[in-house]
Specification:
The chain folds into 2 domains: about 130 residues, 3-Layer(aba) Sandwich (Cytidine Deaminase, domain 2), CATH 3.40.140; about 190 residues, Dihydrofolate Reductase, subunit A, CATH 3.40.430. Helices cover about 25% and strands about 25% of the residues. The strands form 3 sheets. An 8-stranded mixed β-sheet has the order 10-9-8-11-6-12-15-14, sandwiched between helices. The C terminus is likely disordered.
């Protein structure tokens, strides 16, 4: 299963709106005979790729897959049928699929065909890996990542508005990877006017065929580099609903301070990614991370959960999430009696 997780991570930026899934097939003797990961949208799923590699050696073997196999006809045939035809006698899945089209149907189809099914191996690891997919399928909205870059004294720009560059090259490259993992990148119209960003993945070592959808809250001025972009106005919740309907699994919110404050204030952020540079601007001036009223006392301060801290050159990347109650539970298959 650990290898299946690794395979899934390798296609993280290419499969959306399908989930990034890995699969490993072992023969009767326990030898790995096939492995694969989900192809770009419209292509074969991880199980089909692994079974094609395994060929006849899959018969009597076991398939380890990070997500419950699908049992419905979509752009590709059902994975459950492929597993049964290949003669696999056991399927070990990390988690059930929360998509209403699956939601336990894959496990039931396999069991009805005589395949032994177990669930739960590395479930926590896979649940974290597939969080954007799980949130989207559970709520209809994208997983919202708020990206912030600031000096150690909490400024995102100098008093004159200049902000290039707060962080170093390695941190900026990581931002491009974050964009590549996202289906859409959102900024406010103020950021478009001040910074005229492209909002594209431009690092040659990261960029693929797919660029994220560019989203502007408001109407971008003529000639802005962000064109063509989806322009949304009004309620943030309605904007997230619209992006969810467009099959955006992960939304990266990049600014500015008013937009960041609005998403934070309304409790719409699933993960904060904060890049901290060893820089001080000093003084009372400069642009804050959040533009808007904050907590009046420490008792009212927002407190989150530290997920990870990574060093990127001279900078730090700090990932923080709201408390567990903010994150939807991973829906499991309705048949909780699936053998462990």
């Amino acid at each position: 299963m650990a290898r299946a997780v690794e395979l899934a991570q390798g296609v993280r930026t290419t499969t959306s709106p399908n989930p990034w899934v890995g699969c490993v097939v072992v023969d009767e003797a326990g030898e790995v005979v096939g492995e694969g990961a989900t192809a770009p949208y419209g292509g074969p799923h991880a199980e089909a790729v692994a079974l094609a590699m395994a060929g006849g050696r899959a018969r009597g073997g076991t398939a380890y897959v990070t997500l419950e196999p699908c049992a419905h006809q979509g752009r590709t045939p059902p994975c459950t049928e492929a597993l049964v035809r290949a003669g696999v006698i056991r399927v070990i899945a990390a988690i059930g699929d929360p998509d209403p089209k699956v939601a336990g149907a894959g496990f039931r189809a396999l069991q009805a065909a005589g395949v032994t099914v177990s669930k739960g191996t590395l479930a926590g690891t896979v649940s974290d890996q597939l969080r954007p997919y799980i949130v989207h399928r559970s709520t209809g909205r994208p997983f919202v990542v708020l990206k912030l870059a600031a000096t150690l004294d909490g400024r995102t720009a100098a008093p004159d508005g200049s902000s290039r560059w707060i962080t170093g090259a390695e941190a900026r490259r990581d931002v491009h990877r974050l964009r590549a993992e996202s289906d859409a990148v959102l900024v406010g119209v103020g950021t478009v006017r001040y910074d005229d960003p492209e909002l594209t993945v431009r690092d040659s070592g990261i960029a693929g065929e797919r660029q994220p959808l560019r989203v502007v809250l408001g109407h971008a001025p003529a000639g802005a580099r962000v064109h063509p972009a989806l322009e949304l106005t009004g309620d943030l919740g309605a904007a997230l609903d619209e992006l969810g309907r467009r099959r955006v699994l992960q939304l990266l919110v990049e600014g500015g301070a008013h937009v960041a404050h609005a998403f934070h204030r309304e409790g719409l952020v699933d993960r904060y990614v904060w890049y901290l540079a060893p820089v001080f601007l000093g003084g009372d001036d400069g642009w804050p991370v959040f533009a808007g009223p904050g907590a009046a006392t420490m008792a009212d301060a927002w407190r989150g959960r530290l997920v990870s801290v990574r060093r990127l050159g001279d900078d730090l990347r700090v990932d923080v999430e709201p408390g567990p109650a903010h994150v939807p539970d991973v829906p499991m298959a309705e048949d909780e009696a699936v053998a462990q």
